[in-house]
Amino acid sequence: MSAVAAHIPYARFQNEIETVIEELHALNCPQAVVPWLAEEQRPTTAEQASTLAANLNQWATKLKDAAIGLSYHNHDFEFRNVGSKTVFDLLVEQTDASLVNFELDLGWIAFAGFDPAAILKRLAGRMPLVHVKDIAAGPNFEAVPVGTGVVDWSALLPIAKQGGAQWFIVEQDNSNDPLSDAGVSLGNLRKLLGS
Asked: Of 109, 94, 10, which Cα lies nearest the Cα of 46?
């Protein structure tokens, strides 16, 4: 078993990136991911989104020098407007496409009311990691096993593959029966991918 990516807390990139690099080298892990922003870290203005983008560019430069890639994992809050654009739009536009990739979480994109297919196409070449997260119908966020929710995986997975996705990572938040749900997700994903 090998690690294809590691979720690293935002503060560790800020405060101890050299240690992060050492750890990823020890694990032979080629990708670091900014997985989450706490409430107080989330941009609420275009200027704050620009600062986040600048930080991602800076960290990605250091990581690239160490032969490690950097991706940013989205949730729904990046799809809120800060001025005339969303935080997500500003991150895509203001990060260096040769340095910063995205670990697209398609369930969160769908929950935010955006079109996952359009975002996959927009970020072709910048999404080596894709989170395959299915969601239940309804106004509240509820992750469910892949293939049992409302996300159209038969349409999205081919677009992701064509756009350069190397890894499909099943993620289900707050499962009541993790092993059973993982088995359902794996079986459905294999069928969808034809493997």
From this structure: 94
